[in-house]
Amino acid sequence: MSCLLAARTIASRLSTNRRYGTAALAAAAVRNDPKREKFVIALGESDEAYLKYSENRTSNTISLEHTFVPDAGKGKGLGKQLAEAAFQYAIEKQLKVKLECDFTVKYFKDNESKYKAYVTE
């Protein structure tokens, strides 16, 4: 077997055996699931990363409550993608953001100059 053929075979096996490929995660689309009140990144047939929220239209706020990324997706920037999508949604809908999740607090602190005007207590 030539080196090129062996490399292709190995690469093919690795890509089909990986649960979440890095390239696929980098291009992962965040979608809003308003019925479940979650921003979601689908990671496979039944697995997902998500940011749970609740909206209060009376006070024009969105509370970012909990971020979850499965172990296989950690360290790939999925939490940041979810938080960014949540902030963009809040900006588009003219909602003030309440930070109840430790991850979103950290994300906000790392991007405070960009989002300071949109956060409330």
Q: In a nutshell, what does this entry contain?
A:
By secondary structure, this protein is of the alpha/beta class. The chain has helices spanning 3-17, 22-26, 78-92, 102-110, 112-115, and strands spanning 31-33, 38-42, 48-56, 61-68, 96-99, 119-120. The chain has a six-stranded mixed beta sheet with strand order 1-2-3-4-5-6, with helices on one face.
Descriptive notes:
The protein is an alpha/beta fold. It has a single domain, classed as Aminopeptidase (3-Layer(aba) Sandwich), CATH 3.40.630.30. It has five helices and six strands, in the order H-H-E-E-E-E-H-E-H-H-E. It has helices at 3-17, 22-26, 78-92, 102-110, 112-115, and strands at 31-33, 38-42, 48-56, 61-68, 96-99, 119-120. It has a six-stranded mixed sheet with strand order 1-2-3-4-5-6, with helices on one face. Strand 4, helix 3 (78-92) and strand 5 (96-99) form a beta-alpha-beta unit. The longest helix has 15 residues, at 3-17. The chain is globular. Residues 1-18 and 22-26 have low confidence and may be disordered. InterPro entries: Acyl_CoA_acyltransferase (IPR016181), Gcn5-rel_NAT (IPR045057), GNAT_YJDJ (IPR031165). This is Protein NATD1. Pfam families: Acetyltransf_CG. Belongs to the NATD1 family. Residues 31-120 form the N-acetyltransferase domain.
